[in-house]
Design a protein that fits this description.
The protein is an alpha/beta fold and 474 residues long. It folds into 2 domains: 153 residues, Rossmann fold (3-Layer(aba) Sandwich), CATH 3.40.50; 232 residues, Rossmann fold, CATH 3.40.50.720. The chain has a 7-stranded mixed sheet, with helices on both faces. Helix 6 packs across helix 8, helix 6 runs parallel beside helix 16 and helix 13 crosses helix 16. The protein binds nicotinamide-adenine-dinucleotide. Nicotinamide-adenine-dinucleotide binds next to helix 8 and strand 7.
Length: 474
Amino acid sequence: MHEPIPVRSRFFQSVSAYFDRAADLTSFPAGLLDQVKSCNSVYRMKFPVKDDEGNIVVIEAYRAQHSHHRLPCKGGIRFSAHVTQEETVALAALMTYKCALVGLPFGGAKGSVRIDPRACSPGFRERITRRYTAELIKKNFIGPAMDVPAPDYGTGEQEMAWIADTYRAMKFNEPDLYACVTGKPLDLHGIPGRREATGLGVSLGIKECLDREEDMAELGLTPGIAGKRVIIQGLGNVGSYAAHFLQKAGASIVGIAELGGGIYNPAGIDLRHATRHFRENGSLADFGTGEFQEDPARTLEMPCDLLVPAALEGQITAANAARLQARIVAEAANGPVDDEGEAILLKRGILIIPDLYLNAGGVTVSYFEWLKNLSHVSFDRMSTRISEDAKTKIMDSVEQLTGRRLDPAQRAIVTAGPHEIDIVHSALAETMAVAYHSIHDAWKTRDLPDLRTAAFYVAIDRVCRSYQAHGIFP
Ligand code: NAD
């Protein structure tokens, strides 16, 4: 299935408008705010790659480093036939604010390659990925201390492996070379938990929001994820894991929108079955149960409590915002709601959980992977046994004092030390909780108009302070 041609997106204007709205509420000097908003460097390239028939195809690609206030820069690489320089810069800017919001020591970046990955053979994709990496190396737009890419729309572990391998071939004497890219396969110095990190982070962020009783009461909803009716757009990396973890927390997935059509079933959809059907057939047509809608955009407008757009930007606009029936829009994708669509949703009292917070789980676990690659040791190696020994000593003392003994199976559970995946998941949960607390606190205590403005406000405050601390603006 080829990518649909999107309507012209207001993505760049929307990110600028969101920035301006929050920046106007701060008291930083205008010049400093200008610097924070500006994209520091963009590399636009064209390079030749041979297709499977031996023809030369000229590929257009970009890497935007939005902010150097912290280094390295960090941000995914997108493969899509519709990427533009403007979109890449907007995505890089969002990465700056996202990293600041969840407390990661990175400037924001984004890369994009203008190809339809679904229409390319694996061999052609590999040649393009390797050549793109070589271009980035030539211009110092990649490296563990400079700029560290990760997966995004249309890319995954395989592309990250090709990037790492190309970097290794050209920079073989760098000791930290595997920290040049994150989202790598486990067998190539990746980290457990990265694959599901963004979708898991989305579900954790939604939980933080839905657990606030007063906020839910204002929306006419009961607190908690359990029992909520959810519609997901996009069954890719982010959408499929977000749906999985929301369902695991007790939500009912009542709608799924994908390329080629959507399905809606108020009684709930068997997610595993639907995902398998989509992967095997490339479409949800003939899934069997529920109502099939040929236009997946229609599925977004069906009754639900929570709409989770997890595909691309510009999905909720002035054209459809008035028809949505959700009470909460949880932005798993980057920029799924544009500024015009947002104005309509907010007027209708619909709560938007903003992208720069909600999908930060991916870059958070990428940060852990980068740290692991720099330290050349897994997180559990230094802690599992010592934690087990400490818990065993406590259990021994408790059993001695009480005269009661746990059975061996229970004892093994209580005294088990954490594995790397446990450390990653708990650090991710903590990150999402702390960040939500900071934006919710800013929203309520500073009387900011909405959660997105609060998220931008907190992020801008942190980036400005970082610039000031460096003495750039004495
Ligand atoms: P992906 O390529 O794995 O999946 C995207 C899915 O969306 C595909 O299955 C595609 O068929 C579907 N899709 C595209 N257009 C659609 C439409 N109009 N209606 C319904 N479905 C449509 O991409 P991903 O990595 O899951 O990324 C999705 C979004 O999340 C993007 O905005 C990306 O920037 C953002 N994001 C991704 C990550 C990550 O770690 N992968 C991290 C943060 C943010």
